[in-house]
C-alpha cells in the first residue's frame, strides 16, 4: 500500500474505456437477448408480407418502420430496464460506485452499449424488411435509418429509464415492463392497422411506437414525407425529455 | 521504543502510544508541545511487529523517541488516514448514525463493532460516499469524500458486505475492469500472475459466481487492494467463511497492514476483533459508545455490573460488547 496523494483521481478516459470494455463483453454474452429482440420484428415482417396487410398498415415502409420500432422497444424497455434493475438489486452498481468512477460514466457506458444494440437490431430488421417488402433504400437512407434508430432507441431507453426510476424491484420492473411493452405493441399493431377505428388509429400514431414507426417510414419512403414526420420528430424529442427527466430524477442506485 | 502520536490535545500536549499496536499504554506528554519523553524499555512479549512501511512514508507520522527525547521541531504531525467529524446519517425520519466522531491513524487495524442495525454499514456507506450524510464530514487522507469523491475514493479499497460483480464477466475481466477504474493498467500476464499468487490461477476464465465462498472472498479482497489503497474498508469480511478461509483472510489483512495500510472493518466476531484489531469502537443505535484498544475496553468495563452479569469466567470482549449493547436479539 502506498501513501502518495495524487492530485487528481484516475483519468476519466481510462475509467470510460474500462467500463465500455466490460459492458461490451456483457453485450456479447447477452447476444441471445439481442436475437430474441429481433424475432418479434421479423415475425411481424413475415406475417405482413401480403399486399392486403401492406395496404392495412399504410404501406411497406410503415410495416418496416413498425418492425424496427418493436425491436427497439423490446431491447430497451425489456432488456435495458431489466438489466439495470437486476444489477441494482444485486449490488453491482454499489460495487462500481465505491470506485473513483463518476456515476455518469457508469450510466453512459451502459447507454452507449444499448445504442450499439439498437443500431444492430435496426440494421438487421431493415435489411430483412426491405428485402421482404421489395424496398430499395439508398445508402443515404440506410444512414438515415441508423440516425433515426438512435433517436427512436432514445425514446424507448428513456421509457426504460423512467421505469427503473419509478419501480425498484427487478421483478416488478420485469412485470411492469412487459405490460407496457405488450400494451404499446397491441395498440400500435391494431391501432395503426385501423382495426380499432379512426380514433384509436390517431392515438396509436402518437404513441412512442407509432411515432418511431412514422419516423422510419419517413426515411424509407422519402416521397411520402409530410409535415407529420416533423411533428413526430418533435413529439419524440418531447417524450425523451419527459421520460428521461423522470428516470433521472427518481432513479436510485440502491434497491433498498 | 518507537512511539506514535495517538491524539493531539487543545492544550498542545500529545497522547502517545507505543508503535506496537497491541500494547495498551497511552501516555500524555507532561508539557504542552514540549519534549516527548519515553521511559519504556523494549517491546512487550508477543506484541505485533511494527508495520514495514518504507521509512520515507513512516517518518511523517511517527514520533521517533527511542529511549531518548525528540524535539518538537523534529516531530511531524500525526497522520490521520480517516477522520469522521460529527457524522449523522438518516433514512427518512430514522436516524441510522448519530453524531459519530472517529479517527484512524496510518497502519492501524480498526474494528467497528455493533449489533445488527446498529449503524455499522451506514457508517461505512458514508465513508465510501455511497450515501449522503445528513450532517458531518468524512476525510480520507485529508480529502473530503463529498467534495472530492473521485480522489478520495481512489485512496480507498472497499470490500462490501455482499460483493456482486457483473455475472457475465470472468474473473480476469472483472480484475481488468476494477483495476482500470482505479487508474491501474494491468497486462494479461500481470493479471495471471496476481491470480496465481492468490491461488486462483486456474479460475481466471470463470464467472465470479462459479467460485466458492473463500475464492470469491480472495478475488474481492484482491480487487479491493489492486490500487494499493491507503485505507481498506472491510464490511464483515469473514461472514460465511470456513475456518481455513478465515485464517487465510486474516493473514492477508495482516500482510496488508505490514505494508503500511490501514484497515477499518466491521465484524460480529468478537474473538477476531480482539485478536486482530488495534482499536475497536462499539456502535449501537447509531451512537458510538466507546473507542478503545480491546485490552483497555475489557479493563475499563470488566467490573461493570452489566458485563459481570453476562461474563462466564474471565471477561472477554464479547462480554463487554453484550454488556454494553444488551442481550436482546436485533433484527
The number of distinct helices of chain B, counting runs of at least 4 residues, comes to: 11
The average pLDDT value of chain A, as a whole number, equals 90
Order of helices and strands of chain A: HHHHHHHHHHH
| Count of separate DSSP helical elements of chain A | 11
Share in helix of chain A: over 70%
Gyration radius of chain A, rounded: 20 Å
Enumerate the strands of the largest sheet of chain B in spatial order, edge to edge or round the barrel.
Answer: 10-11-12-7-13-14
Number of domains of chain B: 3
Low-confidence stretches of chain A: 2-7
How would a textbook summarize the main sheet of chain B? Answer: 6 strands, mixed
Q: What is the element string of chain B, with H for helices and E for strands?
A: EEEHEEEEHEEHEHHHEHEHEEHHH
Gross morphology of chain A is globular
The biggest sheet of chain A amounts to: none
User: How many angstroms does the end-to-end distance of chain B come to?
Assistant: 46 Å
Cα-atom radius of gyration of chain B: 21 Å
Average pLDDT confidence of chain B is 78
Helix content of chain B: 25-40%
Protein described:
The complex is a heterodimer of chains A (256) and B (331). Chain A is an all-alpha fold. Chain A contains eleven helices and no strands. The longest helix of chain A has 31 residues, at 60-90. Chain A starts with 11 loop residues before the first helix and ends in a 6-residue tail after the last helix. Helices cover 29% and strands 24% of the residues of chain B. Chain B has 331 residues and is α/β, with parallel strands linked by helices. Chain B has a six-stranded mixed beta sheet with strand order 10-11-12-7-13-14, with helices on both faces. A four-stranded antiparallel beta sheet of chain B has the order 3-2-1-4, with no helix packed on it. Chain B has a four-stranded antiparallel beta sheet with strand order 6-5-8-9. Chain B folds into three domains: 1-78, no CATH class; 105-147 and 229-331, Rossmann fold (3-Layer(aba) Sandwich); 156-228, no CATH class. Classes of the chains: A mainly alpha (256), B alpha/beta (331). The interface between A and B is large, with 36 and 49 residues.
